[in-house]
Amino acid sequence: MLLLIGVALVLVAVLLLYAGMYDLSVAARNGPSEIEHKAIDILNTVLLVMMTMEIVYTVAITLESHTLNAEPFLLIGVIAGIRRMLVITATSTNIEAQPDQFHNLLLELGLLAITVVALAVAIWILRYSAKKYVKEENPIESE
């Protein structure tokens, strides 16, 4: 079942990447103003491909080791948070005229920043604890 999920996710990632590259080629043919207009959508698509491939990697690790590793899910969360932050900052220039919506976007941006930092700290704790507290299978005795 996980293998089927992995294959479906790879197909989704390939189709998303194709769509992003197609949008980029169309924008490049139409000139710099079109690239500027489409840049947010293209960046959003590329980051979505990264998230999808990270999920595929997590599924592959789960299939191989028959254990669930938390770090890849935390990385997906970091990528998703940064993706949303980039979209908010890129589109916030259109909303500056409406103070209520702009205030809500700033609040969302702050919460996303806190979430990304918390996830990064969680990743660091996982890596630190793996080095510090997980014993090697064949420890070398010092004499």
Describe this structure in words.
84% of the residues lie in helices and 0% in strands. By secondary structure, it is mainly alpha-helical. It is flat. The model has no long low-confidence stretch (mean pLDDT 83).
Radius of gyration: 20 Å
Question: How much of the residues is beta strand, in percent?
Answer: under 5%
Shape: flat
The succession of helices and strands, N to C, reads: HHHH
Tally of DSSP helical segments: 4
- What oligomeric arrangement do these chains adopt? single chain
Q: Helices and strands: which structural class?
A: mainly alpha
Q: Percent helix among the residues?
A: over 70%
Q: What is the terminal separation in angstroms? A: 50 Å
Overall pLDDT, averaged?
83
Biggest sheet features: none
Low-confidence stretches: none
Number of beta strands: 0
Short description:
The protein is mainly α and 143 residues long. Helix content is 84%, strand content 0%. The chain is built from four helices and no strands.
